[in-house]
Amino acid sequence: MLESLGSLSGTPWLYVIVSLSILLDVFVPILPSGVLVIAAATTAAGTTAAGTTAAGTTTTAGDAVEMASSVHGGTHLAEIISLVVCAATASVLGDMVAYRLAWRGGDRFDRAISRSRRLTAAQERLGAALTRGGGGLVVLARFAPAGRSVVSLGAGVAHRTVREFLPWSALAGLAWAAYSVSLGYFGGHWLGTSWMSTALSVVALFAAGSAAAYLVRRPQRHTAH
Questions:
Q1: pTM for this one?
Q2: How many CB atoms lie within 10 A of CB 143?
Q3: What is the CB neighbour count within 10 angstroms for residue 62?
Q4: Which of 105, 133, 202, 212 could bridge 144 with an S-S bond, Cβ 3.0-4.6 Å?
């Protein structure tokens, strides 16, 4: 995966692949959108580091080395910011598509969710938590397994207004994108472009998801006592 993404680094196709994965992830939660975002950020960090090193070895003038490093650093920062914006935008677009489809066909999506034991359980937990915690839990649920799907579809089925749902969806998408890209960036910057750095970043992403799922369930546990 890293080799494939490395060949696409700096091209629009990288953003297209990442965006499509995130966009469809709301309907197929098993898609590895988070892994792709992390791998893309890891590749970008590794590519920039290599480019800066190469620039330093091919010139002997100190000013030229500093200028080359500055150019590579600027390109690197622009690529990382673009990846965050791309991932966050795709996340919000996917949320809104699911929200609109569920709004128009609420009964159909309700039956679809009811056929999945996992989604049904998640819907019950998140529904109770959202009632108590408000829109802030939309952000938290973005990190939880299947949380994005349940929140987006549930908001549509419940006919929540766009004004109620969209701002929290945007904040959730931005938080998730910034966290995922940061994991890939720092992993690639500190450990290099390797499977080890990507694996550690993915573990950190799953750890955040587990923590989010626990926090979402916690209000329900407290009220049970």
A1: 0.74
A2: 25
A3: 8
A4: 212
